[in-house]
Amino acid sequence: MEKLSHTTESILDENVERLAELFPEVVTEVREPDGSLRHTIDVDALRERVGDVAEGQRERYQFTWPGKREAKQEAYRQIDKCLRPCPEESVNWDTTGNLYIEGDNLDALKLLRNTYAGKVKMIYIDPPYNTGHDFIYDDDFARSKADYDAESGDYDEEGGRLVANPESNGRFHSDWCSMMYPRLLLARDLLSEDGVLFISIDDVEQTDIAKICNECFGMQNHIANLIWQKKYTRANDAKFFSANHDFILCYSRSSDRCVIGKLPRSEEMNRAYKNPDNDPRGPWKATPLHARSGKAGGVFQYTFSNGYVWSPPSGTYPRYSVAKLRELDESGEIWFGKNGDAVPSRKTYLTSLGDDGVVPTTIISYKEGGDNHRAVEEVKGLFEGKNLFSSPKPTSLLRMLQRFANLAGDSIVLDFFSGSATTAHAVMQLNAEDGGNRKFIMVQLPEVCDEKSEAAKAGYKNICEIGKERIRRAGKKIAAEVEESNRQLKLGEEPKGVPDIGFRVLKIDSSNFEDVSVEPGEFSQDAVLRYADNLKLDRTPDDLIIQVMLKKQIELSASIEKLDVDGCTVFSVDGGRLIACFDRDVSVEVMTAMAKMEPDYAVMRDASFTGDDAVSNFAEIFKNYSSITEVEVI
To answer: Which residue of 249, 298, 390, 506 is surrounded by the most CB atoms within 10 Å?
Structure first.
């Protein structure tokens, strides 16, 4: 019977498997120090298969910085950490599909990867802009405690280091790039084939983050650099220019699969359609008969029924064929101006446009996407006028990006620099508008609030506390607005359902299990007795079931039901796909009852068995009652 691994999956082993699928002959075996054999890649054999390669001192196009190699290795490094459930801080724990993860986002991405790889439709992040005043995650775990203490910065609640990155630092750009690189490598794995990534950034690191994304996602998957007008007033005290915009970089997992959603038509757009000739087909707008591109050929001419001989202007091409022009002419869809002697154009009717919407532009004005002031006022409106965040984003901007991402009604949206939780707020709003059931996953480090800040004065210890409270308050406000709208419905109008305004809180912590990998001589007799059960004293079955869900690729929002089976607590997850029991001395009767549920997976603890015979019974019982079940021990 297999033992369930405590660590995250090995990305390097996965990469070996992928190469083996393409080139089976490049796979070889090497012997580990413990004598075991491990599959790996024969680099010389791979070189023979791919031909000429760039290596050594050979010149090549690349973007590099001091620490890049370590940053890449950090993305691939396995961790032995867990997510611990916090129902007491959650909203609608049993029914919600949303998640709020508290902890280092690099750990979170590693923990999420096995279950959510290829499932996230949209990722939005608003990382620290590296202005010299921001705090960045310090991922250099090789430093000593003395090195950490010598640095300026702040600690999160778990002792993790948040390091200020002043421009005087010789590694100003390198540290920031090393922080972002492994996170973006992992983020790509989470995106669905048609998924998109949006990154808010300013001028300082815009070029660097674009180069990192080109490497992680591929330059061919760069969709656009959007410009968001974050301010509409001029800063006359600016040294050079008044900075009124931020960039929003857009990348896809696969540009061949990506479809950018269109925006709904506005009233201002519709006002451009008139009906000066009282056409019974309704308002229309004149559009040219020529185009900038087309098939080259000889001179094109068409004589309309009124005698007008038309040719496309020099350097342009006819938009329509002769047959199509004749059809438009005969149906009265050609406009020759008020006096009948103007250059002809086609009448495009408002009714012919349907509900397809309009292609978005790369410039997002403050009128459409909101601005910094509106974002602050939104937060203040939820917190009795208190300004708890220095630079939140407006929900209108996030809703617009969600439309660009072309989200389906049940898509997953991830933000692993959650901050003020605007992304979660926007997802709930969009669901309220169109009845969707999109899910959000927020990830945020519990960065301690400055004691002089308005947030600290209001009683909030860290950013996570504010973010979670913002989602609670925004959810209540959205639910109240939906209910009020339903009360005002006219006879025959369909009421809207209240969207999912809940979320499960999960906190990243050290392993659920004690480290028992030390040499036997290092154990005292007391330690041996204490580690007879290697589960940490403060951990519960609820902690274990979350860990098993991740291992079995079951979404963390799946239903979790506790059943009483002959006095034992049996977990039934995701409608019975996973059955688990972590009690001690579990009887054969309980195991048999679990097997009769015919789950896909069945998991128990070492401590659940009274001896080796009981472990064998566990496997045999499932062979008899549910041979399809994958049985494991944790």
So the answer is: 506
